[in-house]
Write a structure and sequence with these properties.
By secondary structure, this protein is an alpha+beta fold. It has 4 helices and 10 strands, in the order αβαβαββββββββα.
Length: 344
């Protein structure tokens, strides 16, 4: 579904930049971890990660310049950013839609149509990306150029449009990245499998707890081929065997990462560690030497949402967006051709 809406960045990160020296990275874990916490066990003895977990946030994927190069916010800055977000949503809802009799700009959605969060991450991070130290993915120039080409030519062919718009898949780790809505994930465990249900675009991952070999490297998949194992209390998921038709990020919240291609060389390692009754720390490292100059890592808390209800995300039924986009582009071309003929 296309909304044209990009989640609000943490615009006031630098508002109180002179207040306090930011706490260390270790202190950020202390903001969400319970030192007395003991992870419960499933009936077969595994650490119990089951339940509904959300990750909506206004913290941007990559570190903005307003952060002044700092990786973490102070408590005062976190509170200021959250207050500003609430006020911006009120202003958005209070503003009348701009309509004209000639079919002009209709204005943005009200905030009640979206669910992208109204707080920064509880860890105080200034970006989801924690490595490299500058908080930005080390994207190669050809990948950025290809993304720009797709954007400039998206009306020419459906393959230039987002896989989210096409209701195919947000991929890995894209399915776990925050979006404008539907930011909840269900974890189910059996003795020999981990199941991850992603609310957005109906993606479902059934991951064996096994060390058996991955499928033939010549077979590429939208969600890749995953294997999981436990390292003490931490669930580690390793995924490879991707094809070259996916995007690393599909929604506006991905910012500069939206539209960056994946290739068959991509290798993704996720870590799920429950640090309190209400928090799982999710960390993912992406490596793709075809696309990036080095590997990079996202770390973000997942927050328990036990009362949330996931409804079916029937994206593809009635998805008229793609044919309408392409038909609209053909009409624009026809109008341009007609104007050229008239001017001769």
């Amino acid at each position: 579904m296309r909304t044209g809406i990009t989640p609000v960045a943490v615009a006031c990160i630098a508002v109180t930049s002179a207040l306090l020296v930011p706490p260390t990275a270790t202190a950020q874990v202390d903001r969400v971890a319970d030192p007395e916490w003991t992870t419960p066990r499933t009936a077969d003895g595994q650490p119990d990660l089951q339940g509904l977990w959300g990750n909506k946030t206004i913290t941007p994927t990559e570190r903005p310049e307003s952060a002044g190069g700092r990786a973490y916010l102070t408590d005062e800055e976190m509170a200021a950013a959250n207050r500003q977000r609430v006020q911006s949503l009120r202003d958005q809802d209070a503003a009348p839609a701009q309509r004209t009799s000639a079919g002009g700009q209709l204005g943005a959605y009200g905030s009640y149509w979206l669910d992208s969060g109204d707080t920064v991450l509880s860890t105080g991070q200034t970006s989801l990306i924690v490595d490299p130290p500058d908080g930005r993915a080390p994207i190669k120039s050809w990948a950025s150029d290809t993304k720009a080409y797709y954007l400039a030519h998206e009306g020419e062919h459906y393959q230039y449009l987002s896989t989210l718009d096409r209701c195919l898949s947000r991929g890995v780790p894209g399915s776990m990245l925050p979006a404008g809505y539907n930011n909840t994930h269900r974890i189910v465990q059996t003795p020999d499998h981990i199941v991850l249900q992603h609310e957005m675009v109906h993606d479902l991952r059934i991951i064996p707890l096994s060390d058996h070999p991955h499928i033939d490297e010549r077979i590429g998949l939208w969600m890749g081929d995953a294997r999981a194992h436990w390292e003490d209390e931490v669930l580690v998921v390793e995924t490879r065997n991707f094809h070259n038709r996916g995007w690393i990020a599909t929604s506006g919240a991905g910012r500069r990462l939206k539209g960056i291609l994946t290739t068959s060389a991509m290798h993704v390692v996720e870590r799920y560690e429950r640090v309190s009754e209400s928090t799982i720390m999710w960390t993912v490292t992406v490596e793709d030497p075809n696309v990036y100059t080095d590997q990079w890592t996202i770390s973000t808390p997942l927050t328990a949402e036990p009362d949330y209800v996931i409804y079916e995300y029937a994206c593809h039924e009635g998805n008229y967006a793609i044919p309408n986009i392409l038909a609209g582009a053909r009409m624009e071309e026809a109008a341009a051709d007609a104007g050229t003929q008239e001017s001769r």
